Amino acid sequence: MRKGTKTFLIAIGVVVGILTLLVTAIGFKFKAEVNKMHPLETKEITSGVYAVNDGIVNMFLVKGKEGFIALDAGNKTENIQQEMKKLNIDPEKVTAVFLTHSDSDHVAAVAIFKNAKIYLPRKEEQMINGKTARFYVTRNKINFKYTPVDGDEIIKTAGLKIQGIETPGHTPGAMCYLVDNKFLFTGDSLSLQSGKVGLFSKFINMDNETQLKSLKNIASMKGINYILTAHHGFSDNYEKAFTDIK
Ligand SMILES: [Zn+2]
User: Fold this and answer.
1) What is the 9 CA–ligand 1 centroid distance (Å)?
2) What's the CA gap between 6 and 126, in Å, rounded?
3) What is the pTM of this model?
4) Which residue has the higher pLDDT, 238 or 32?
5) Could you tell me which of 76, 65, 148, 149 has the C-alpha nearest to residue 107?
6) Which of 228, 223, 210 shows the shortest CA–CA distance to 174?
7) Ligand 1 center to residue 178 CA distance, Å?
8) How do strand 57-64 and strand 49-54 relate by DSSP bridges?
9) Is 200 exposed, middle or buried (0-12, 13-18, 19+ CB in 10 A)?
């Protein structure tokens, strides 16, 4: 083998070795972050508000006078189907699905909600059309029709009032949804630890500074009874939850 070829092969070997180490380290870090998550078991949290457990994540259902709405759509379709059976709620009674953002563990089971209109934050479109990459290299995928929602837009369906509230940071289009002025569904826009609001995983967030600004924007909202997160359970004390954010 010529000396030049040998040097070249060694250089390739070193680069491949470094990349493998890097990918492994990122994998471990990601797993450690997921292990910190503590989603709720499938259950009715308070009258007409249900958590649906999908391993690492929760989606939620709210009962209105004319059906149900869903907040996010889980990580695996079969899990969501199974858990909804436990609650005895027919996915076909869901009139609308409100997606907080486009990460794969929030959108998987959309297809089982056959009669639902699917809403996605308008500013999240950049995550699925190739304009903005997730984790620097990947693209979030969505293979269903949706209606874009703008910040502060109010939608009425199933006898419920749903307001979109832009809370960018986790992803640029991340949105919370306020249902009937009482229940705030936050997706991955915040974490809850011992009842206190904090940033979601800094490692998984796309922009921590922007997320903190978003949290400050919603910290002084009044009249909210419940904060419901996708990976960190819920709080029924809004003021206490935001004491460290103001
Ligand atoms: Zn996410």
Assistant:
1) 40
2) 44
3) 0.91
4) 238
5) 76
6) 210
7) 18
8) antiparallel
9) buried
